[in-house]
Amino acid sequence: MTRILAAILAAGLNMPLTLPAAMAEGKVMVELPNLSGMSDEDAEKLITALAQVNVITSNCPDYDISDGEWTLLVGTGDMLAKALGMDPETYDEQYYGPAFRMLEDPGACDRIGPRARPIIDDLIEMGGGTEHVSE
Q1: What does the alpha-carbon distance between residue 58 and residue 25 come to, in Å, rounded to a whole number?
Q2: Which residue positions does the secretion signal occupy (predicted)?
Q3: Whole-number pLDDT of residue 24
């Protein structure tokens, strides 16, 4: 099965993204993937997928993920939003608003949930991590 993330991450690269680690509420800090050079178009596709997976894994018990995995997803999304020049309000409106509206669809959990593991695995292959790292 072709994964959208693999295509996005393999795309031409031209946007620098250099944020080495992400922290969740001051508790868990993880390494973020190297997405340097990713085009704006691919970054927007990835940030959409990250928001959707974050909402589903946070709200659908069958697709629960660890704190480290959650931090990897959120930190990568935040890194992309910053690289795209988005303020937090725009980021929430454009990506998280639609992702939360998906919860109105009873099939959303089973449609989006299976995408979480492949995305997390791809982010790890790109240098991201789910284990705590020191500041």
Answers
A1: 15
A2: 1-21
A3: 46
Beta pairing partners, 13: 38
- Token couple for 4: 């959208």
Low-confidence ranges of the chain (pLDDT < 70): 1-28, 135
- Dist CA 131 CA 68 (whole Å): 6
Taking the C-alpha atoms of residue 25 and residue 81, their distance in angstroms, rounded to an integer, is 18
Spell out the domain ranges in the chain.
4-125
pLDDT (0 to 100) of residue 37: 84
Residue type, 128: G
Rounded distance between C-alpha atoms, residue 133 and residue 38, angstroms: 25
Q: Where are the alpha helices (DSSP H) in the chain?
A: 4-10, 40-59, 67-83, 88-91, 97-101, 108-112, 116-125
The string of pLDDT tens digits covering residues 33-71 is: 999 889 999 999 999 999 999 999 999 999 999 999 999
Q: Are 80 and 126 in contact (CB under 8 A)?
A: no
Q: Are 48 and 95 in contact (CB under 8 A)?
A: yes
